[in-house]
């Protein structure tokens, strides 16, 4: 079976709809045809300051949401990144193969350090993509389901795998990004020139755990474009196109079909119907997440079991890598 690895940052409170459509939906689908490893990347989270109690809580809420969305611990290995120290062992080796300039060109680092200020940016934020590469390579993953914004990190991962292989002999599978057509970049509802993200004001971001009434209101208040025709045109009508993309992804109807369905109707009709489609999707997810969080012991058991299975695989890769780079085996 092909192997799959992906990760998501624990975000205070809730994932957003872009996470689901760009990545998590593929996580769920791939469980049937691959050997899947999915982690909540708490090590990555501390590249920006975190409140300790909140981080712990977010990690649990994230795991519960993944289960509520359909990640099945019987078919996938679900774990918390910091429970598998092999990621860090491999990360160090990969840091020593990464050029300083190469890391400096990563746009996510550039964006974040610009936003938060380079003075406050940590070395951890700088080496963030190298740890991500290690997350992937330590499982010898073939495919990595992610949204469009992770493409550059996947390229770095492939470069590092290839570099290691040519320097030390074939050790790593060179992974491929698995980016869905259509919903790989969901846009903010208020600023449709930017991707939906928790770092933008909440009015433009659909959080999966929001009250459904709040979600419906956000969608009804989405920024649309000039003109009145409902048709997909990413350049002239980014707002409307984004709404059609979300509708299509959740309803399973093609964008073309939706254009016909809404022909002669107004933006208000599109938003009203989309609000229903989205709330129908999020309402049970929210309900199920709450139920899962009620049984914390069971959640912790699932994560402990996942970490144990993940470590069995990761340990073998690290042992081989340590041998290849010439570390003396402990006696
Ligand atoms: P993160 O936590 O920011 O996002 C998780 C996943 O959601 C996707 N995504 C989106 N897709 C479409 N439209 C959007 N508006 C949108 N916003 C987010 C992201 O592309 C991602 O797939 N660096 C990663 C986490 C990570 C990781 C890994 C991923 C750490 N190690 C190993 C894959 C493999 C990140 O910050 O994702």
Keyword list:
331 residues, mainly alpha, three-stranded parallel beta sheet, two-stranded parallel ribbon, 13 helices, 55% helix, 7% strand, binds tryptophanyl-5'AMP, ATP-binding, EC 6.1.1.2, Tryptophan--tRNA ligase
Helices and strands in order, then pairings?
Layout: E1 3-8, H1 17-30, E2 35-40, H2 42-45, H3 52-69, E3 76-80, H4 86-95, H5 100-104, H6 107-116, H7 123-137, E4 143-145, H8 151-168, E5 176-178, H9 212-220, H10 238-251, H11 255-261, H12 267-294, H13 296-325
Parallel strand pairs: 1-2, 2-3, 4-5
Bound molecules: tryptophanyl-5'AMP (TYM).
GO molecular function: tryptophan-tRNA ligase activity
Keywords: Aminoacyl-tRNA synthetase, ATP-binding, Cytoplasm, Ligase, Nucleotide-binding, Protein biosynthesis
Protein name: Tryptophan--tRNA ligase
What can you see in these coordinates?
By secondary structure, the chain is mainly alpha-helical. It contains 13 helices and 5 strands. Strands 1-2-3 form a 3-stranded parallel β-sheet. It is globular, with a radius of gyration of 21 Å. The relative contact order is 0.14. The structure holds tryptophanyl-5'AMP. Tryptophanyl-5'AMP binds near residues 44 and 136. Tryptophanyl-5'AMP binds near residues 7, 9, 22 and 186. It is found in: Cytoplasm. Keywords: Aminoacyl-tRNA synthetase, ATP-binding, Cytoplasm, Ligase, Nucleotide-binding, Protein biosynthesis. Catalyzes the attachment of tryptophan to tRNA(Trp).
């Amino acid at each position: 079976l092909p192997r799959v690895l992906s990760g998501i940052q624990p975000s205070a409170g809730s994932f957003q709809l872009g996470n689901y459509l760009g990545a998590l939906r593929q996580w769920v689908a791939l469980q049937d045809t691959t050997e899947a490893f999915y982690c909540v990347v708490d090590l990555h989270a501390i590249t920006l300051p975190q409140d300790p109690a909140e981080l712990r809580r977010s990690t649990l809420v994230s795991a519960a949401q993944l289960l509520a969305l359909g990640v099945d611990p019987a078919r996938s290995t679900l774990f918390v990144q910091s429970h598998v120290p092999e990621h860090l062992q491999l990360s160090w080796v990969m840091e020593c193969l990464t050029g300083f300039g190469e890391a400096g060109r990563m746009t996510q680092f550039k964006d974040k350090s610009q936003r938060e200020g380079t003075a406050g940016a940590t070395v951890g934020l700088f080496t963030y993509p190298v740890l991500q590469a290690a997350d992937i390579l330590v499982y010898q993953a073939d495919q990595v389901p992610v949204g469009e914004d992770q493409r550059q990190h996947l390229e770095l991962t492939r470069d590092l795998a290839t570099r290691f292989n040519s320097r030390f002999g074939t050790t790593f599978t060179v992974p491929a990004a698995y980016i869905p057509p259509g919903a790989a970049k969901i846009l903010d509802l208020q600023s449709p020139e930017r991707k939906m993200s928790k770092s933008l004001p909440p009015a433009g971001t659909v959080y999966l755990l929001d009250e459904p009434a709040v979600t419906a209101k956000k969608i009804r208040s989405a920024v649309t474009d000039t003109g009145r025709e409902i048709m997909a045109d990413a350049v002239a009508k980014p707002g409307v196109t984004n709404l059609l993309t979300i509708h299509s992804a959740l309803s399973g109807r093609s964008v073309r079909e939706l254009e016909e369905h809404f022909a002669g109707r107004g933006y208000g009709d599109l938003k009203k119907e989309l609000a229903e489609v989205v709330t129908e999707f999020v309402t049970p997810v929210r309900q199920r997440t709450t139920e899962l969080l009620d049984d914390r012991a069971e959640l912790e058991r699932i994560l402990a079991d996942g970490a144990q299975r993940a470590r069995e695989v990761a340990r073998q890769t690290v042992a081989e890598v340590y041998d290849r780079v010439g570390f003396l085996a402990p006696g």
